[in-house]
Amino acid sequence: MERAPDVLSHGDWVERPVRLYRDEWGIPHVRAQSAHDAFVGQGYAHAMDRLWQMDASRKQMEGRWAEWVGASGVPADRLARRLRAAAASVRDYQALGTDARAMVDAYASGVNAYLATHPALPAEYQLVAGTPERWEGWHCIAAMRQRGYLMGSVWFKLWRAAAVGVVSPGDVAKLRYDDDGADRLCIPPGADASRWTASLADLREPIHALSLLAGQDTTDGGSNNWALAPSRTEAGRPILAGDPHRAFELPGMYAQMHLGCDDFDVIGFTIPGVPAFPHFGHNEHVAWGVTHACADIHDLYVDVFDPADRSRYRHRGDWLQAESATEEIKVRGEPAEPVQIVTTIHGPVIAGDPAAGAALTLKSVQFFDLDRSFDCLLPMLRADSVDSLFRAVRGWGLIDHNLVAADTAGHIGHLVRAVIPRRPAVNGWLPVPGWTGEYEWDGMIPAEQMPRTDDPARGYLVTANNRVVTAIPATGDYFCTDALPPYRARRIEELIAGLGPASPDDMAAIHHDDFSAPARLFRTALADVVPRSAAARSARELMLGWDGRMSPESAGAACYSRLRWALARIVGTRSGLAAPTKATAADLTDLPGGVSAVSHLWWVLPALLRSGDTSLTGGAPCNELLADALDAVASEPSDVRWDQLHTAAITHPLTPLLPDAPAALSPAGAGVGGDNETVWATGCRAESGTAAVYGAVARYVFDVGNWDNSSWIVVGGASGDPGSSHYVDQHDAWSRCELIPMRYDWETVTAPGPQLTLRPAERPPTGAGRRPPPS
Question: Beta-carbon neighbour count of residue 148 at 10 Å?
Answer without folding.
Answer: 19
